[in-house]
Write a structure and sequence with these properties.
- There is one protein chain.
- The chain is α/β, with parallel strands linked by helices.
- It has a domain at 6-111 and 139-155 and 177-194: 3-Layer(aba) Sandwich (Rossmann fold), CATH 3.40.50.170.
- It is 32% helix and 22% strand.
- It has helices at residues 16-25, 45-52, 68-81, 98-103, 124-131, 166-189, and strands at residues 6-11, 33-39, 57-59, 86-89, 108-112, 135-142, 152-159, 193-196, 199-202.
- A seven-stranded mixed β-sheet has the order 3-2-1-4-5-6-7, with helices on one face. A two-stranded antiparallel sheet has the order 8-9.
- Strand 4 (86-89), helix 4 and strand 5 form a beta-alpha-beta unit.
- Helix 1 (16-25) runs parallel beside helix 6 (166-189).
- The longest helix is centred in the last third of the chain and has 24 residues, at 166-189.
- Mean pLDDT is 92; it is low at 205-218.
Length: 218
Amino acid sequence: MPPNPKAAILISGRGSNMVTLIEAARAPGYPARIGLVLSNRPGAGGLARAEAAGIPTATVDHKEFPDRPAFERALDARLRREGIDLLVLAGFMRVLTPWFVEAWAGRMLNIHPSLLPLFRGTHTHAQALAAGVRVHGCTVHFVVPELDAGPIVAQAAVPVLPDDDEDALAARVLEQEHRLYPAALALVAGGRAVLRDGRVAFAADLPRAEGALRVPGA
């Protein structure tokens, strides 16, 4: 990873996590710069929010391509043309093929609304409530070909309260996502968390973060 890598945030919707990442990257000394927000949907609400924040935007509409490989080749070409070093998925609602994932191996992060490996896939808050767990949360992980199975960079936990419904639990988890994702991106962009032999390796002098950040093995 080069110093101060140029990151692209990939979105499909309103870009809630995108906004917190853009704000975090403005801080002096933050180890990444947000150089592009890209969506597969031309009407994604997050594009206007990124433009208002002064971030360049782009669209690669998956509907304009005959199949997933053709879409991903165009996506990859656009990212490389923009000089992108690091991908950050923030509500990007496309399942990526092994070809694309391997092309960006160790340089692509995702956030998932559960404490992986629990509750992969969709409707994670409903899954958590149905399972009767007392703790739920979110996970930032490197992307691998298997869905929601990549090596974990960081996690944040929230309590599941007796009167919770999906909306209440989702709101509590989203608040932690907004804290966790910028912190996890900083670890990776700053070279303090790297993908090595299928696991996340952390710098020996990694400081213990405050608040929601949980660093495996620290």
